Amino acid sequence: MKKGMMHEYKKKFASDVIFYGISSGLISLFGLITLPILTKTLSPDLYGVWVQIGVTIGLLLTFITLGFQMTVVRFLSGNEDKQRVSSLFHLMLGIVLLNGLLFVLITFFFQKVLSSFIFADVSFHHFVPLTGMWLMAQAIYTMHISFIRSRSKIKLLSLINIGLSTLHILILYMVLIVFTGNIEMVLILYILATVILSVIIYLFEVVRTVGIYVKVHNLKSTLKDLFKFSLPFIPNIPLGWILASSDRYFIVHLLSLSENAVYSVAYSLANVLSLFYMPLGFVAYPLLVEFWEKNQKSAVRDILEKSCRVYIFFVIPSILGLYVIGPKLILILATSDYIVPSTLILWVCLGILFLGFEQINVYIIHLTKKTYYTTFIISIAAVLNIVLNYFFIKAIGIEGAAISTFISYLFLATFVAFLARKELHYSFDIKFTLKCIFASLIMLFVIRQVAISSIFMMLLSILLGAGIYLALTIFLRCFTKEDIKDIKHIFGFD
């Protein structure tokens, strides 16, 4: 690839990452806004129900989509044949719609059985059909978002996500605060909003850009190719859900819904770290597919190496920052029912750190279409997580869940990185990582001296920590000449 063209790709990639990162940050901020609304208007048990609904949707979403949300990106990215793109998308969307309807029917006919499993209480059975309908709405929305992603329209996609999240906050505030309603009405309005937005995307992005073509040539062969890639995602993502969320079920059944609410609040806060790996992978994957199909592996390698460096630079100081300010921030945002030890937040953060490394490396396996590779590894990690959760939670409570998840993610990240590097060898900058750790530890020592008693003091400590960290990384020469050149080009200073 020509040098000038590569610079333009880097510029677009960086601007999309920044835009998507900012939008994801805003959405996470919206999550912090919803936290006090939910915790101060709902009882701990009802908040636990709300959490369980979200966790359950996270588990079952891939069963509804059959892994097609990733298949859309892998098979449609860079494809300029409109008829082919449209026919493939409509084929996958049709299968998802039929599958979703089946699941909705199941939630209507088996309400009490499912309620006992999901909430450990039959009295919450009326939430089960609503969970099924929200699940189907989310599946439809996810497919349309994947289509936009495959077209590399990251900025448009980001704006749509922000719009839906804003609408969710307005619904939550109006129903629970203004009209003192219940979460059943919130769920109904969420479902309607998601479906309406999906229809709008379909009309203006799918139909308008590629039309409606439903005839697929060589249907049998096409389905074979699609399912060969997508089917491993059916066990992979639920197994990943076990790693990320099954601890909630152990906490509910071994401890209580209230303990689950406390753990979930800590996890929600620590999950802001996903802002540092999700934008990188989300934006990079369509671009990586395009380079891979053109056999430009050096470009793929360059993007992955830089993605790892960017991730390390931001995530390490953020972990130590959350360790200090996290418990105090939770007390400010929630009530005294949610007292979270700093060590719990630290263990959760360390788990998410290694999840990020796994998420970056796994795209190499997706590029080779060997998605079945990860199934075996995730299965082992999931079994390990279940065993550790049972014994650790019984022994030391909710902190045991965080430690179990950390160990499982460490195992998963190590083996996925090993497989990925067999397919495409790229370097990991250990020297850069050590410098970032050193600068972060100095930052930690300084901000721990700040007495945080208000939001203002918290913001001040965050700004102080960020300033110290940036100054130290510059002093330690963490940035190479090439890094500086790329930064100047991205912001138009070259």
Short structural description:
This protein is mostly helical. The protein has 19 helices and no strands. The chain folds into two domains: 42-231, no CATH class; 254-494, no CATH class.
Write a structural description.
The protein is 83% helix and 0% strand. It folds into 2 domains: 42-231, no CATH class; 254-494, no CATH class. The mean pLDDT is 85. It has helices at 3-41, 44-65, 68-76, 82-109, 111-119, 127-150, 154-178, 183-210, 219-230, 233-254, 257-270, 278-293, 297-333, 342-367, 372-396, 398-423, 430-447, 455-475, 481-490. Helix 1 packs parallel to helix 7, helix 10 (233-254) runs antiparallel to helix 16 (398-423) and helix 14 packs parallel to helix 16 (398-423). It is globular.
